Design the sequence.
C-alpha cells in the first residue's frame, strides 16, 4: 500500500516519518510550496526534537517524498491520511474548511478505491460529512471508505509518541477499512481499539478534555495550597501514587496552552451546547485556565506594587519545553498584560520567537538569560526549559536589580533558590 499524507504540519510530517520508518512508501502533500521545498531538502520548518534526523534518513532512503501536485498524489496512492489543521472559529467550534477542501480534492481526483483516513481532530459526525463531501465532488463514481484514526502525539515528544503510542484508535464502519488500517499499523505493539467513527472522534476530544481537567484541578488546588502553606508538589506526588489517579498531568503552573487543549476543549463545549447538554465541569476547566496566568501576575503585583516601568524578565515563551510553538502560550498572555500595565519586558527562550504583535519597543528578546536579567525587578519562569535549571543562579542574581523569582512552572528548587537569596514564589509552592 502507498500512503499519502495530506498536510505536512506537526502531525502530518510525524505520521509520514513513522510510516516510512515502518517500511511503507509515503508521500507528503501540502499546499504551501515553501514547506514542501524545505522538507524535500530535509529541513523542518518547525522545531521538534528528533524529526530532522529521521527526515534526512527517509528523504534519502527513497521511502518518503514530498509534493504539491495533489491530483497526481491522490491518483498514485491507495491510503490517504488527512492531517490538516482544524482551528477554532470565533465561537469555539472547529473550522473544517481545510478538511472539506481535502475531501473535495480527493473526490475530484480519485481514480479507483481509496481508503481515506482522518487524523485531524474533528467533531463527532465529521466522518459522515467527509463521506458526503467526497461523494459530491466525485467526477466518476469510485468506491472508497472514510475512517477516523485520531492522533495523540504531544509536541516536543512527537516522534516518541507516534512510534510508541499507548493506543491506536480506529473508527471505521467497514471491516475492509479497519483491516487495512490494522495492517498499516501491524508493526506497532500497543492496544488497538476498533470502534465506530463517531466513538473514535469523541475519544480524541474526551482524552484532551480530561487531561485539561486534571491540569485545572491541580491548578485550582494549588491556589488553596498557598494560604494553607502546603506544597502542591507533595500533594500531587501523594495523589499520583494512587494508580487510579496517576502522577501525570498534575503539575501545577500558569495553565495549559498550545494548539490543542484550548481549541479542543472549546470545540467539545460547543458540540455539547448545540445539543443542549451542559458540560459544567469542562466549562469550569476553561474558567480556571483562563485566570491561572493572572494568578502568577497577582503574586508579582503583591510583591512589586504597580508594574508600571518595572523591568520584568520572562524565562520561556513557548507553551511548553522542546517546542518553538507559541500558540495559546500563557507567556504571551502574561506579556500582553505586562505591556498593558506599562512594564518593561525582556524575554529569553532558546527556540521560540516573538510574534509580530509583540515586537514593540518595550519588549526585548534574547536567547541569553544573563542579558534579560540585567537590572530586572523580577523574573517570571513561564516554560520549564531544562537550561533554566542548569543556570548559575548565584551569578544571575547579582545582575538583577531585585532578586524576585516567580516560578510559573514550579520548576526550580524553592529551598535552594531561597538559600541563594532569591525571594521565590511558585504556584502553591514556596
Ligand atoms: N500539533 C499536535 O500536537 C497535534 C496532535 C494531535 C492532533 N492534532 C490535530 O491534527 C491536526 C493537524 O495539526 P497540526 O498541528 O499538524 O497542524 P499544522 O497547522 O501544523 O499543519 C497543517 C498543515 O496542513 C496544510 N494544509 C492545509 N490545507 C491543506 C490542503 N487543502 N491540502 C494540503 N495541505 C493543506 C497546511 O499548509 C499545514 O502545513 C489538527 O486537527 C490538530 O488538532 C495536532
Ligand atoms: O501537568 C501538566 C501537564 C501539562 N501542562 C501544560 O499543558 C499544555 C499541553 O501540554 P502537552 O499535553 O504536553 O502538549 P500538547 O502537545 O498540547 O499535547 C496535547 O494535545 C495533543 C493535541 O491534541 C494531544 O495529541 C496530546 O495527547 C496532548 O497531550 C502545556 O501548556 C503544558 O505546559 C501543565 O500545565 N501541567
Sequence:
Amino acid at each position: 500500500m502507498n500512503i499519502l499524507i495530506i498536510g505536512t504540519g506537526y502531525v502530518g510530517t510525524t505520521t509520514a516519518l513513522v510510516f516510512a520508518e515502518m517500511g511503507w512508501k509515503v508521500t507528503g502533500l501540502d499546499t504551501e510550496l515553501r514547506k514542501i521545498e524545505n522538507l524535500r531538502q530535509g529541513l523542518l520548518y518547525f522545531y521538534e526534537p528528533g524529526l530532522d534526523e529521521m527526515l534526512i534518513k527517509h528523504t534519502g532512503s527513497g521511502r518518503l517524498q514530498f509534493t504539491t501536485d495533489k491530483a497526481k498524489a491522490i491518483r498514485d496512492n491507495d491510503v490517504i491520511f488527512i492531517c490538516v489543521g482544524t482551528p477554532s472559529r470565533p465561537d469555539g467550534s472547529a473550522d473544517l474548511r481545510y478538511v472539506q477542501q481535502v475531501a473535495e480534492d480527493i473526490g475530484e481526483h480519485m481514480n479507483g478505491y481509496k481508503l481515506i483516513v482522518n487524523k485531524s481532530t474533528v467533531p463527532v459526525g465529521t466522518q459522515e460529512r467527509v463521506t458526503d463531501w467526497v461523494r459530491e465532488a466525485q467526477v466518476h463514481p469510485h468506491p472508497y471508505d472514510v475512517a477516523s484514526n485520531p492522533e495523540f502525539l504531544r509536541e516536543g515528544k512527537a516522534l516518541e509518541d507516534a512510534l510508541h503510542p499507548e493506543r491506536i484508535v480506529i473508527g471505521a464502519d467497514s471491516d475492509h477499512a479497519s483491516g487495512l488500517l490494522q495492517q498499516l499499523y501491524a508493526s506497532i505493539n500497543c492496544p488497538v481499539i476498533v470502534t465506530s467513527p463517531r466513538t473514535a472522534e469523541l475519544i480524541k476530544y474526551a482524552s484532551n478534555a480530561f487531561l485539561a481537567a486534571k491540569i485545572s484541578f491541580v491548578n485550582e488546588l494549588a491556589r488553596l495550597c498557598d494560604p494553607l502553606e502546603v506544597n502542591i508538589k507533595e500533594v500531587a506526588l501523594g495523589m499520583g501514587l494512587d494508580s487510579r489517579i496517576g502522577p501525570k498531568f498534575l503539575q501545577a503552573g500558569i495553565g495549559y496552552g498550545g494548539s490543542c487543549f484550548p481549541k479542543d476543549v472549546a470545540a467539545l463545549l460547543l458540540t455539547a451546547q448545540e445539543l443542549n447538554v451542559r458540560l459544567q465541569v469542562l466549562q469550569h476547566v476553561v474558567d480556571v485556565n483562563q485566570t491561572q496566568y493572572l494568578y502568577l501576575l497577582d503574586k508579582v503585583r503583591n510583591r512589586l506594587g504597580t508594574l508600571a516601568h518595572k523591568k520584568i524578565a520572562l524565562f520561556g515563551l513557548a507553551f511548553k519545553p522542546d517546542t518553538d510553538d507559541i500558540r495559546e502560550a500563557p507567556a504571551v498572555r502574561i506579556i500582553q498584560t505586562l505591556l498593558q500595565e506599562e512594564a518593561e519586558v525582556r524575554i529569553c527562550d532558546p527556540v521560540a520567537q516573538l510574534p509580530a504583535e509583540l515586537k514593540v519597543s518595550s519588549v526585548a528578546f534574547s536567547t541569553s538569560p544573563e542579558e534579560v536579567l540585567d537590572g530586572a525587578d523580577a523574573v517570571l519562569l513561564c516554560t520549564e526549559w531544562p537550561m533554566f535549571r542548569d543556570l548559575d543562579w548565584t551569578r544571575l542574581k547579582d545582575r538583577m536589580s531585585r532578586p524576585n523569582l516567580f516560578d510559573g512552572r514550579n520548576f526550580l528548587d524553592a529551598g535552594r533558590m531561597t538559600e541563594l537569596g532569591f525571594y521565590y514564589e511558585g504556584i502553591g509552592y514556596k
Residues 26 and 321 are 30 Å apart (CA to CA). The chain has two domains: 2-195, 211-425. The radius of gyration is 23 Å. The pocket of uridine-5'-diphosphate-glucose (ligand 2) is lined by residues 121, 151-155, 208, 211, 215, 249-251, 253, 256-258, 260-261, 264, 319-320 (CB under 6 Å).
